[in-house]
């Protein structure tokens, strides 16, 4: 096998993203040949060490420098709006739904990316539900009416505004300070990011209603894919399926652990213990989220996506619609 | 002619950043006082920088502000100096040309993907990027023009003029400009 | 990537720079040649999105805004007035007007990004008075050169923004981290002036006493820079604004003060615009080139080679930092400091991280090393500047002699922050 070792360059998740990058992704690529048995040597670079912005990943792949990218869906939807279909606001309130939606939509995404970007999708996984942290007594989602809520993207902004809150876009490092000074009342992120950034020090409640799942995936250039014979392709796909399954499971366990830590429950193994009030979403909350999905996120996105590809929203409705119970 | 172009570019540049400052100030005040957010200045700031950067490249080129170290250079015999000055302007033109080519690639991709900014305005990226490309093209043309001129000066042996127009701006020159404007300001009583 | 290649490429780049070729082009050329040698033509195409990514980064928008802010204050004559006010307040200290030199530089440094403009302005106002009162010329010039260098450590600072953008470090925290070291270094300079004045036998360098009323009425000119400083830093510290937003607030405030002084003329504004554009263009072209070089450095694994090399040497963090002090001291003698910073950070930063050094702390350290480069011969921007404004026909070696004690003080201070890192890290940690 030594005579024709293949060399691949891989652009990974930012180092700053924490445990999934350091415990699952990086080890996988660093032991790639052993894990897959394929004669492939990997040069793995976290995206934030290269100076490449994560919005540019698809273009960088098209340029041909990287063979495989740990694709961040939300930033890259700038060039490929179809990616957003995996994680519309309100679509994935929990892990189980996210998994069903991903399995249903992945073939559509893959086909689209192959067509427009010469890129094949080897799977997708979430950082996990992005939930609400508030320095105010909230007992349901509608209680954020009149509050200032930090959001990290535009779709979320529209969503929180639909229930009468003020959306404040703000970069992650500034949130802690703003919460403690009352510049914002609530902020949205994943529970383990919140824990490691110390948000529970400056908030009182966490509302475990997932507004987005922060999806990511592994995209390989068709050029690299076609370097392999069909057996090798199958081996590669299997290896990535295993990795994706592992990450799904790990992501969920990190999520639950962080929820425990934030609210002072056990087991808490990966974070600092705090004493937030844990607020479970009510039936009304879930209904409201579903409402927002149908009336806000979906139509807004469908407009943009259909401009790039006329079949976009029709494909989504055909594949994702049934699994989430749309007629 | 160059002076007029310089003035025009500088005014556009200044207007962009003054307007941006006022807009951001408004946004911060609105956010603080009324909890209301315009959500546009962040995006505009990025476009302002992209366009402003290309204009400023050209202005720095005319003002000979792109840094060159003259510690060895100024001690060389005139012919060497002339060759290095000419080489510098050719290299600068190549870099400007490369940036122009790269910007062209960016625009091509944006058109192909119909890329749309992930913001409330959902700005089609082609708008800001076209203006950015024009700025990059002006820089490219200016740099190529200067390079051709320096080559012509070198070939026709006008080394003194080459020296005068293409020598890296020394600290002394830069300072003279500053001192001029400082003494102009100090019409008031001195201590 | 082997160490030999890295050292050859670095030497080649420095050689191009020293020959007088444009800094930005030298960096981009090495980056592109290295990238193409390693990866062929696809490397060229992948630079496109990088260039747009850098030039569209709204974090870097703070650079033209801060430069514009400093220009407005300068061209409206506000820095000129500051010197007069401060000399009334500080003139009675042993060392007299030399304190005003340092004090004005420090205060103006806090609002302006440019040390050349600071040194030139203060120099023009100060030197006639210094001369009249027969202050030793070399010491006067030395204090001006050193004071001007404070500009890049005390926020706002373009050098700190550049560091933050190259390393993904929070600009707000870097600015916070610069305050205490900036003040401490200023006080250190002033203490040195007082002591050396007391040690001299002549004591004529003490200024007349002023009444409180005179002091207060002269302080009007201190208000604008202080207000601008508190608006910029206060809005960052309180989480009200990002670094870029705070710069915009500063620009608007400076415009208001310039308007109040009736200096907001079309000519003044146009000068501000041209100067701001020139400085911005110079900086951003270097940064664009730096990101191209950075891509090659990270893809070819230069950074990790250097990091594992430095760990393999078994250096402790302190030994590593002392070695860096020597490295930057030598490099800073010959290189322009912004270029030095941009060219070295992609390599030294991962090495520092590998040794467990705090990223914010390291930013302040690197900028302190740049300050040093501004006043070390033979290439020291601030030395040239104050030499250019001296009224007599003395040689530049006099200026170097006058600045030398400050070189020692900065080295001493570097040792101090290595020994007591909390000087740097305490304030930004308070902010979290
Ligand atoms: Na400053
Ligand atoms: Na120096």
UniProtKB/TrEMBL annotation, chain B:
MF terms (GO), sorted A to Z: transmembrane transporter activity
InterPro entries documented for this protein: DctQ (IPR055348), TRAP_DctQ (IPR007387)
Bias type Polar residues, positions: 181-191
Keyword Transferase part of the UniProt annotation: no
Membrane-spanning segments: 7-24, 44-62, 82-104, 131-155
Compartments it resides in: Cell inner membrane
Keywords: Cell inner membrane, Cell membrane, Membrane, Transmembrane, Transmembrane helix, Transport
Bilayer topology: Multi-pass membrane protein
Positions of the Tripartite ATP-independent periplasmic transporters DctQ component domain: 21-149
Family: Belongs to the TRAP transporter small permease family.
Protein name: TRAP transporter small permease protein
Organism listed in the record: Vreelandella sp. SM1641
TrEMBL record, chain C:
Protein origin, superkingdom: Bacteria
Membrane topology: Multi-pass membrane protein
Annotated transmembrane regions: 7-39, 59-78, 141-162, 174-195, 216-237, 243-260, 281-303, 309-331, 352-375, 403-427
Protein family per UniProt: Belongs to the TRAP transporter large permease family.
GO molecular function annotations of the record: transmembrane transporter activity
Major subcellular location class: membrane
Subunit structure: The complex comprises the extracytoplasmic solute receptor protein and the two transmembrane proteins.
Function, as annotated: Part of the tripartite ATP-independent periplasmic (TRAP) transport system.
Record bears the keyword Lipoprotein: no
Taxonomy of the source species: Bacteria, Pseudomonadati, Pseudomonadota, Gammaproteobacteria, Oceanospirillales
Organism encoding this protein: Vreelandella glaciei
Record protein name field: TRAP transporter large permease protein
Pfam families named in the record: DctM (PF06808)
A GO CC term assigned to this protein in UniProt: plasma membrane
Segments forming domain TRAP C4-dicarboxylate transport system permease DctM subunit: 10-423
Keywords noted in UniProt: Cell inner membrane, Cell membrane, Membrane, Transmembrane, Transmembrane helix, Transport
Cellular localisation: Cell inner membrane
């Amino acid at each position: 096998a030594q005579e024709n070792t293949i060399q691949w360059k891989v652009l990974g998740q930012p180092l700053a993203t924490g445990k999934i990058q350091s415990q699952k992704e990086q080890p996988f690529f660093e032991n790639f040949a052993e894990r897959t048995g394929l004669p492939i040597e990997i040069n793995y670079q976290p995206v934030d060490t290269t100076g490449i912005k994560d919005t540019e990943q698809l273009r960088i792949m098209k340029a041909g420098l990287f063979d495989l990218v740990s694709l961040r869906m939300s930033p890259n939807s700038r060039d490929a709006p179809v990616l957003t279909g995996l994680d519309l606001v309100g679509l994935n309130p929990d892990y189980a739904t996210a998994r069903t939606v991903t399995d249903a939509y992945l073939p559509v995404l893959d086909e689209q990316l192959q067509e427009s970007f010469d890129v094949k999708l080897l799977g997708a996984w979430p950082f996990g539900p992005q939930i609400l942290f508030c320095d105010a007594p909230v007992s349901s989602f509608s209680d954020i009416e009149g509050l200032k809520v930090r959001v990290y993207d535009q779709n979320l902004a529209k969503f929180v505004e639909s229930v009468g809150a003020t959306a404040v876009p703000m970069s992650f490092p500034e949130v802690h300070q703003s919460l403690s000074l009352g510049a914002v009342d609530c902020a949205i992120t994943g529970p383990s990011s919140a824990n490691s950034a110390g948000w529970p020090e400056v908030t009182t409640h966490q509302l475990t209603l997932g507004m987005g799942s922060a999806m990511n995936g592994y995209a390989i250039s068709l050029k690299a894919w076609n370097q392999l014979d069909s057996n090798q392709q199958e081996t590669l796909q299997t290896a990535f399926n295993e990795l994706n399954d592992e990450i799904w499971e790990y992501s969920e366990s990190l999520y639950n652990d962080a929820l425990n830590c934030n609210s002072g429950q056990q087991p808490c193994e990966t974070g600092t213990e705090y004493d937030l009030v844990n607020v479970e979403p009510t039936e009304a909350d879930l209904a409201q989220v579903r409402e927002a999905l149908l009336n806000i996120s979906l139509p807004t996105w469908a407009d943009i996506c259909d401009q790039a590809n006329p079949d976009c929203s029709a494909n989504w409705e055909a594949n994702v619609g049934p699994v989430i119970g749309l007629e | 002619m160059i002076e007029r172009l310089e003035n025009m570019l500088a005014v556009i540049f200044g207007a962009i950043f003054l307007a941006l400052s006022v807009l951001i100030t408004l946004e911060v005040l609105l956010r603080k006082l009324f909890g209301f957010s315009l959500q546009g200045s962040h995006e505009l700031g990025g476009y302002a920088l992209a366009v402003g950067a290309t204009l400023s490249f050209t202005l720095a080129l005319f003002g000979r502000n792109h840094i060159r170290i003259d510690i060895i250079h100024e001690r060389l015999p005139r012919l060497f100096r002339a060759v290095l000055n000419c080489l510098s302007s050719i290299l600068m033109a190549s870099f400007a040309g490369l940036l122009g080519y790269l910007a062209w690639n960016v625009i091509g991709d944006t058109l192909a993907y119909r890329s749309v900014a992930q913001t409330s305005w959902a700005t089609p990226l082609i708008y800001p990027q076209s203006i950015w490309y024009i700025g990059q093209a002006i820089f490219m043309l200016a740099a190529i023009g200067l390079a051709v001129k320096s080559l012509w000066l070198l070939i026709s042996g006008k080394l003194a003029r080459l020296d005068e127009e293409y020598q890296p701006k020394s600290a002394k020159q830069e300072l003279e400009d500053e001192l001029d404007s400082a003494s102009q300001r100090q019409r008031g009583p001195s201590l | 990537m082997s160490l030999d290649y890295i050292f050859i490429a670095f030497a080649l780049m420095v050689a191009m720079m020293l020959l007088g070729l444009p800094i930005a082009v030298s960096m981009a050329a090495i980056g592109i040649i290295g990238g193409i040698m390693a990866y062929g033509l696809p490397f060229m195409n992948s630079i496109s999105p990088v260039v747009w990514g850098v030039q569209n980064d709204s974090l870097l928008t703070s650079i033209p805004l801060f430069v514009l802010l400093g220009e407005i204050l300068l061209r409206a004559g506000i820095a000129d007035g500051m010197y007069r006010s401060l000399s009334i307040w500080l003139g009675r200290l042993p060392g007299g007007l030399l304190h005003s030199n340092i004090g004005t530089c420090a205060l103006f440094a806090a609002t302006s990004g440019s040390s050349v403009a600071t040194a030139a302005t203060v120099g023009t106002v100060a030197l006639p008075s210094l001369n009249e009162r027969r202050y030793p010329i070399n010491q006067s010039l030395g204090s001006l050169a050193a004071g001007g260098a404070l500009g890049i450590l005390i926020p706002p600072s373009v050098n700190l923004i550049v560091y933050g953008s190259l390393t993904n470090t929070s600009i707000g925290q870097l600015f916070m981290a610069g305050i205490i070291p900036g003040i401490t270094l200023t006080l250190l300079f002033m203490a040195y002036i007082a002591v050396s004045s007391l040690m001299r036998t002549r004591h004529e360098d003490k200024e007349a006493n002023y009444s409180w009323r005179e002091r207060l009425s002269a302080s009007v000119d201190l208000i604008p820079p202080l207000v601008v400083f508190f608006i910029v830093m206060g809005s960052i510290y309180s989480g009200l604004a990002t670094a870029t937003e705070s710069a915009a607030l500063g620009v608007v405030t400076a415009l208001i003060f310039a308007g109040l002084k009736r200096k907001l003329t079309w000519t003044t504004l146009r000068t501000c615009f041209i100067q701001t554009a020139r400085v911005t263009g110079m900086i951003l072209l270097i940064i664009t080139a730096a990101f191209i070089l950075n891509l090659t450095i990270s893809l070819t694994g230069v950074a990790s080679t250097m990091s594992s090399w430095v760990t393999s040497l078994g250096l402790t963090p302190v030994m590593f930092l002392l070695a860096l002090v020597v490295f930057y001291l030598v490099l800073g003698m010959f290189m322009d400091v912004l270029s030095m910073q941009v060219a070295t950070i992609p390599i030294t930063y991962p090495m520092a991280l590998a040794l467990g050094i705090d990223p914010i702390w390291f930013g302040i350290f690197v900028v302190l090393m740049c300050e040093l480069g501004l006043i070390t011969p033979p290439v020291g921007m601030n030395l040239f500047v104050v030499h250019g404004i001296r009224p007599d026909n003395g040689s530049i070696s006099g200026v170097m002699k006058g600045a030398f004690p400050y070189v020692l003080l900065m080295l001493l201070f570097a040792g101090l922050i290595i020994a007591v890192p909390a000087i740097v890290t305490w304030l930004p940690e308070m902010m979290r």
